[in-house]
Amino acid sequence: MNFRVFAAAVVGLLSVNSGRAQSPAPRFDLIIRHGTVVDGTGLPRYRADVAIAGGFIAKVGDLSSDRAAVDIDAAGLFVAPGFINIHSHASPEALARAENMLTQGVTTEVVNPDGGGSIDLPDQLARAGVNGLAVNIGGYIGFNSVWAQIVGAADRRATPEDIDRMRALIVSGLEHGAWGVSAGLDYKPAYYAQVEEVVRVVEPAAKWRTNFPNHDRLAPESNFSSRVGVGETVAIGERAGLMPVVTHMKAQGLEQGTAGALLAMMNTATKRGHYTAADAYPYLAGQTSLGALLIPAWAQDGGRDAMLQRFSDPALRAKIVSETEQAMKARFGGADGVFLPRTRQELVDVVREQQVSPGEAVVRILEQGNTTAILRFGSEADLVKILQHPTTSIACDCGASTDVRQHPRAFGTFPRVLGRYVREQHLLTWEDAIRKMTALPANTIGMVDRGFVAPGMAADLTVFDPNTVIDRATYEDPGQLSEGIRFVVVNGRVALRDGHVTGEQGGRVVNRTAHMPSRSMSTTTTTRRLTLRGKVRLTENVTDGLDKVRPKPDATYNLDIAVSRSEASRAKGSFRLTDTASGAVVESTDLGILQTADKWASFTARVRDTKSGLEHAALVIVEDADPFVVGHPRTVTVSLDGIVRVAGQIAAPSSRR
After folding, report:
1. Does 318 reside within a domain?
2. What does the pLDDT average to over 493-497?
3. Among residues of the chain, what percentage have pLDDT more than 70?
């Protein structure tokens, strides 16, 4: 049953049974009281209550005189935006409960990283949610999937026709709500794509102002250099006009100790005008299929069957074994760097038992079938530098799962950062760590209505105990749930209560629109302003809230915006929208977050319909030069309670700065 309906029914039933007149309905569905808000901006935390209505944050402040259908006492706890995992390998069957993610504080997962996933994003996400969603999900369109679909498993050059077909698939993915174009150029067959081919395929996404997260390609020609891999990711992003994102960033193997140089490359690209970001997890080992990064590319040409045939040729097998060992040493320090989670064996133990070389042991294991491996790659000093970098989001390279024989990151990533690197080692502040889990990943992928605790934002919230939050999962016992995450709210519904999953399924499929650019995030106190006044002529269809589209091509609205944000987390000012035909007026009562980028701005607010008195969550997006409208005019989109109500061009007089 719907949470609000249930709560209201309970209140009504009690009133009837008591024989007394019914008291006024609570103004809010839920109030989280007495907590310390860490709001996602990176600015200092503060004490406040947080009210939720209709799945959105309605008010933040002293709500001691306000009532709600349900209260949560957060005394001694931190109240943060729900954590956003922008590198998710979620198992569809686990999304209905998502216990391993909710107990980490995650409320949104973005699937299809590393270039993978379906090229039919709507179908994929619909099937993932068929049994309900405990968390929100969105997806990337994957370069690897597109390449494999058109070019196939063989190492060959793409024809001009192939390029055109792949470009069309990339655009289709973005039109259907993809949060960026992911790639994993370290994985075959995308590994075979040349830089120029990758650029040509992904460059249509530049119009969408989106991002390019890439698992860097480490090749034997560069002695498996992370520096070369990061440089390639940055170069592709720059040339294609996309934001490069160095995904699950690391300084591997022989290049341990060079994280500072890798981060300097990113900084240099940003100074050139090509903002570059990263994501990382707090571990010194990764997990992928055993052969993917060890078996040489030429041996994988054509797929698994072709690889197995090469294994059966004694001369080729010897060459494969030798090159596998070279890769193993350069990337993971040799056989000591490989652990097999399915059988819970170290590769060195397999080598000892079979009395073969490490490369031969890998080949023999793969002959029996595909399996995963945990691969140790880095140093703690490098990891700390990467986690501290201002553009690095925390992302677990994991997702909703019931598999307890895998990497501990699937159960511990976010609490591990909070417990180990914030509370115990003081290497990050609470405010910056939360920013890296919420607003920063939201900005990186273009999300505008999540990532902050502010009026008008979607009510995704994580409430945790700063004194106890910690991971418990280990490599030996990776299925242990984290501790200290006390409550998780997903779109206004309590999905985790007192550390236990409730079974609520408030998650939704979240899609990116053309008006949600990837952007940098600054925690400085530079004043941002949005001042705009003029008439809005509708140029797009709008919905009536019942999943029906009604065109209003002749409707006009008067728009008046005067919003600014400086040192405070919240914006100040006013917003007013008037329907010139009916005289209906919607005006702001509480402003949320003002976000700005080049020729773009958005803000959230709580607004009131002056005729009906009803309140709504509002999201306003202003484009100074809309790339999707002929002539690139100034446009505005106004959504109320998540539904687009006004979308059109702004006529003079108007101003913005």
Report:
1. yes
2. 98
3. 92
Q: Give whole-number Cα distances, 8 to 11, 33, 56, 99, 491, in Å.
A: 5, 20, 17, 28, 18
Q: How far is CA 124 from the centre of its chain?
A: 17
The verdict on residue 215 lying in a domain is yes
pLDDT band at residue 76 under the 50/70/90 scheme: very high
Residue 169, number of CB atoms within 10 A of its CB:
21
How far apart CA 160 and CA 144 sit, in angstroms, is 18
Q: Mean per-residue pLDDT for 428-451?
A: 98
Within this chain, do residues 180 and 313 fall inside the same structural domain, yes or no?
no
DSSP-derived pairing of the beta strands 500-501 and 493-497: antiparallel
Residue 406's pLDDT band (boundaries 50, 70, 90)?
very high
Question: Does residue 83 surpass a pLDDT of 60?
Answer: yes
Residues 131 and 255 in one domain: yes
Decide: helix, strand or coil at residue 124: helix
How far is the C-alpha of 330 from the C-alpha of 346, rounded, in Å?
18
Say yes or no: 257 and 217 in one domain: yes
Q: How far apart are CA 92 and CA 90, in angstroms?
A: 6
Residue-wise pLDDT tens digits, 142-184: 999 999 999 999 999 999 999 999 999 999 999 999 999 999 9
- Whether residues 622 and 643 fall in one domain: yes
Give the pLDDT confidence of 251-276 residue by residue, as tens digits.
Answer: 998 999 999 999 999 999 999 999 99
- Sequence-distant (≥ 6) Cβ neighbours of residue 179 within 8 angstroms: 86, 110, 138, 139, 140, 210, 211, 445, 446, 447, 512
Residue ending a domain, among 359, 375, 391, is 375
What is the full DSSP assignment across 537-603?
A: EE-S-EE-SSS-EE--TT-EEEEEEEEEESSSSS-EEEEEEEETTT--EEEEEEEEEEEEETTEEEE
* Span 50-67, average pLDDT: 97
For residues 496 and 601, membership in a common domain is answered with no
Range(s) of the domain holding residue 113: 81-284+377-501
Give me the amino acid identity at 37: V
Q: Return the ∠ at Cα 618 (arms to 614 and 619), rounded to 5°.
A: 170
Backbone angles phi, psi at 125, to 5 degrees: -70, -35
**491 and 398 both lie in a single domain:** yes
Tokens of 250: 């690391």
Q: How would DSSP label each residue in 311-365?
A: HTSHHHHHHHHHHHHHHHHHHHSSGGGEEETTTTEEHHHHHHHHT--HHHHHHHH
8-state DSSP, 454: S
SS3 488: strand
The answer on pLDDT for 616 being more than 60 is yes
The candidate with the shortest Cα–Cα distance to 218, out of 210, 229, 232, is 229
> What single letter denotes the amino acid at residue 186?
D
- 53 φ, ψ to 5°? -145, 130
Which residues neighbour 131 within 8 Å (Cβ) at sequence distance 6 or greater?
A: 93, 95, 96
What is the average pLDDT value for the chain, to the nearest integer? 92
Residue 523: inside a domain: no
Tell me which of 203-217, 223-237, 556-570 is least confident. Answer: 556-570
One domain, residues 94 and 205 = yes
Handedness of CA 584, 588, 593, 599 (dihedral sign): positive
pLDDT reported for residue 549: 41
Measured in residues, the chain has a length of: 657
Pairwise CA distance, residues 523 & 43, whole Å: 7
Measured CA to CA in angstroms, residue 239 lies from 202, 207, 235, 348, 382 at distances of 10, 13, 6, 43, 28
- Per-residue pLDDT, averaged over 312-318, amounts to 98
Phi-psi region of 209 (alpha: psi -120 to 50; beta: other; left: phi over 0): left
Total domain count, the chain: 3
- Same domain for 299 and 386, yes or no, is no
